[in-house]
Amino acid sequence: MMTERESLLKEQAYTEVKKYEKRVQQDPYRLSYHLMPPVGLLNDPNGLIQFNGVYHVFYQWNPFATTHGAKFWGHYSSVDMVRWKEEPIALAPSEWYEKNGCYSGSAVESDGKLYLFYTGNVKLDDSTRETYQCLAVSTDGASFEKKGPVLKLPAGYTAHFRDPKIWNKNDRWYMIIGAQTLEGKGAAVLFVSNDLYHWEELGPIAGSGMNGLGDFGYMWECPDLIQLQGKEVLLVSPQGLEPKGHLYNNLFQSGYFVGDLDYKTAQFQHGDFVELDRGFDFYAPQTFTDESGRVILYAWMGITDESEPYQPTVANNWVHALTIPRELELRDGQIFQNPAEELKKLRQDEVRFDYGEHESLDEVCSAEVELDFAEAVAGSFEMNFRGECVLSYDSSKQEMSLQRRNIITGLCEKRVCRLNKLSKLQIFIDHSSLEIFVNGGQEVFTARYFPQSENHTITFNGTTSFRLKKWNLGGVI
Ligand code: FRU
User: Which pathway or pathways does this protein act in (predicted)?
Assistant: First the structure.
């Protein structure tokens, strides 16, 4: 049963959606094939699952402002990961244990029911906080019955303890939580359960200062543990890493450790941390395994910025979006990310040419562009996106970079990664976003950008040869 407070909050959120609907839809920077909030602010993807054949994507949502606040769980569903349906609000922060936000979490299916796990965030008057790991259950995948907290804060951690990710292994349930130790170090903590309601702590499996890692951040958010090629891969978003050359240049990072986890002793022998994305706007990634066994990732195509709100869409009462779905594979210990196959369904109006026949592409707003280099690029190559973003490769330095104009300072900013060769690019362009897949998913650059409305041209520059394919991508939301 929905409490009075819960229905009131949901009503207020729907009123907000109605109030700004037109304004939001008319925004020239509104994306055409990415999931966005109907109004307000979206951040992390939550509760990703394929349940009874239907894909569900929930997301952190503040319907009342384009800043962070007491989060709801918004909800989209789809039968093909291409066409999405807006579902009723899944969770509203109505109860005492979540009054300042139904924070991030995940979903699992058991006995034909959908279980959502999330963090109940409570801020107290003395500016301290409390955290509760909570459960809500659904039989139809649309309405959720709250069961309240199933796990309280264990000893040894501050109240920055959140974002439960649950999975099943050998008929037992496991939960990994993002944490901060009392010494102020980020960690990922493992729990086990037989029934999804009672949880026992197994201990931290990784963290700042653990497993030979050295100083590695003051808080780890949104952990995820996946199995790829017989290895365990811990995805995590650490806060507090210092920039190190080309690494860790965004405010917060998202990346992974590959290793072997002993589920009994909670020992995780792992390698180095690797950033998942080389661009500007990528945070809090989460994955799910679909019914065909693919591991699919979504991330927030944005990042918390101290100076928020700053993006131009704020003037039209919405901000941020999720990435496209990406399929993950582990090859020689490295994650490769590629756009989910299904996105090919969006392709329209194919154009093909060889570089030399044309040196630019016009009328590009919402498109996919593929460049196959006849031979790996020798020298330098550059692609300019609508005068706002430049992708460059330099084979002598073995570096790829993405530059854009910073929307607050107006100055040029740049992200760089090492790349030993450039042989292929697959680029997803939407009205205000770029997702650039390099060499079949070896590296990815994700960025929001806000081009002038009169410029719809991509130009190419370099002594190289490639075959280009371009498709306009149809709208789906
Ligand atoms: C990550 C995060 C999570 C938290 C949520 C709140 O972006 O800070 O740790 O659960 O966002 O919206």
Answer: Glycan biosynthesis; sucrose metabolism
Does the beta carbon of 181 sit less than 6 angstroms from any atom of ligand 1?
Answer: no
Among 321, 338, 355, give the residue marking a domain's end: 338
**349 shares its domain with 326:** no
What CATH number has the domain bearing residue 368?
2.60.120.560
> What tokens appear for 378 in the block?
């020798």
Same domain assignment for residues 51 and 128: yes
User: Does ligand 1 have an atom closer than 6 angstroms to the CB of 163?
Assistant: yes
Q: Is 349 a catalytic residue?
A: no
| Residues 315 and 441: beta-carbon distance below 8 Å | no
The ligand 1 atom nearest the CA atom of 104: 10
Taking the whole predicted model, whether its pTM rises above 0.90 is answered as: yes
pLDDT band, very low/low/confident/very high, at 306 (cuts 50, 70, 90): low
In sequence order, which residues have a C-beta less than 8 Å from that of residue 90 and are 6 or more positions away? 47, 58, 72, 73, 74, 75, 116, 136, 144
Which DSSP category does 25 fall into?
H
Q: Ligand 1: distance of its center to the CA of 337 in Å?
A: 23
How many CA atoms within 13 Å lie on the side-chain side of 70? 18
Residues 394 and 310 placed together within one structural domain of the fold: no
The domain containing residue 48 runs over which residues?
A: 4-338
CA of 103 to the centre of ligand 1 (A): 6
CATH number, domain of 132, equals: 2.115.10.20
pLDDT single digits (tens) 239-259: 999 999 999 999 999 999 999
Top mutation candidate among 60, 253, 300 for ligand 1, by most atoms within 8 Å of CB: 60
Q: Which two tokens stand for residue 205?
A: 């499996």
Could you tell me the distance, in angstroms and rounded to a whole number, from the CA of residue 153 to the centre of ligand 1? 17
Cα(179) to ligand 1 centroid in Å equals 12
Backbone angles phi, psi at 314, to 5 degrees: -55, -35
Q: Are 273 and 349 within one domain? A: no
Q: What's the ipTM? A: 0.99
Final residue of a structural domain among 288, 319, 338:
338
- Same-domain check for residues 298 and 371: no
